[in-house]
């Protein structure tokens, strides 16, 4: 299952996995875009099995509906790639009244993973095949300082900087992987979770940032950016390679384990974020 697979890295990741014979589930807010991706992949891989289901990752209710629909299909779930990314130049709120990038990039992935985790653990137990969860993060998580990383302020910021808000969600993705990895190990579940930095890739998010820099600087920087296929490489490596079977709670870049920030490595911070997130979900919205 690949979130954010209607364009960019997610679409490329779906194509690579389909070529490896993996059945692909594409949850999408825009089913027309998802259908186009499916058609493109099946032109190259006529036998690819691709299932499209509707979801709005910024909406807790939509995530619940999606998970109920998927689980009702009775299919196994070996791989979950949390790849969807939202960057907002201006302050926006989800239908749940949460800042949009935090709702989509972190809380949406957190809730989806929680609701599907039982199925992943069951699938791994039944098949003997290790389950893999991959959180697509970013090197930009390094920009976040401890003083700026406050759960309640991220939910409803009084002042807003789009780049900082995006960076905070990417830090949260790494902390999520770190804490969930600890819990999975404690449960002796045959499921791993890691986070990856795909590189700075020519995607829609980069185009959204363009308004903050000059056209000439953007042109020069774009020459150094990775292609979508290069950007998808680390995600696919962590999702599929036997070389990372023992790795969980780690951070990867360029198909190698890499270093993340001191804050991203903080186990207490990871546990605190987990507890605050669970409390929010349980108290205000749903009970996963």
UniProtKB/TrEMBL annotation:
UniProt cross-references to InterPro entries, sorted A to Z: NAD(P)-bd_dom_sf (IPR036291), SDR_fam (IPR002347)
Pfam families reported for this sequence: adh_short
Swiss-Prot/TrEMBL keywords: Oxidoreductase
MF terms in GO: oxidoreductase activity
The organism's place on the tree of life at top rank: Eukaryota
Similarity section: Belongs to the short-chain dehydrogenases/reductases (SDR) family.
Protein name: Short-chain dehydrogenase TIC 32, chloroplastic
Organism: Olea europaea subsp. europaea
């Amino acid at each position: 299952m690949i979130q954010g697979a209607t364009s960019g890295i997610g679409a490329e990741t779906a194509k690579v996995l389909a070529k490896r014979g993996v059945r692909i589930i594409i949850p999408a807010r825009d089913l027309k875009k998802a259908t186009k991706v499916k058609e493109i992949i099946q032109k190259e891989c006529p036998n690819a099995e691709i299932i499209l289901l509707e979801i709005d990752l910024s909406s807790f209710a939509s995530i619940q509906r999606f998970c109920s629909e998927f689980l009702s299909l009775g299919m196994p779930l070996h791989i979950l790639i949390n790849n969807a990314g939202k960057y907002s130049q201006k302050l926006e709120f989800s239908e749940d009244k949460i800042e949009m990038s935090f709702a989509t990039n972190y809380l949406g992935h957190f809730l989806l993973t929680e609701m599907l985790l039982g199925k992943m653990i069951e699938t791994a137990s039944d098949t003997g095949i290790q389950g893999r969860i991959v959180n697509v993060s970013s090197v930009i998580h390094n920009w976040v300082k401890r003083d700026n990383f406050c759960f309640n302020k991220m939910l409803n910021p009084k002042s807003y900087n789009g780049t900082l808000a995006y960076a905070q969600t990417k830090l949260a993705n790494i902390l999520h992987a770190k804490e969930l990895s600890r819990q999975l190990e404690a449960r002796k579940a045959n499921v791993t979770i890691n986070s990856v930095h795909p590189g700075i890739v020519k995607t829609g998010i980069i185009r959204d940032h363009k308004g903050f820099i000059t056209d000439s600087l953007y042109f020069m920087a774009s020459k150094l950016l990775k292609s979508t296929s290069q950007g998808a490489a680390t995600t696919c490596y962590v999702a599929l390679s036997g070389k990372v079977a023992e790795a969980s709670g780690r951070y990867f870049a360029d198909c190698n384990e890499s270093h993340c920030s001191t804050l991203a490595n903080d186990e207490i911070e990871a546990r605190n974020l987990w507890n605050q997130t669970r409390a929010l979900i349980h108290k205000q919205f749903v009970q996963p």
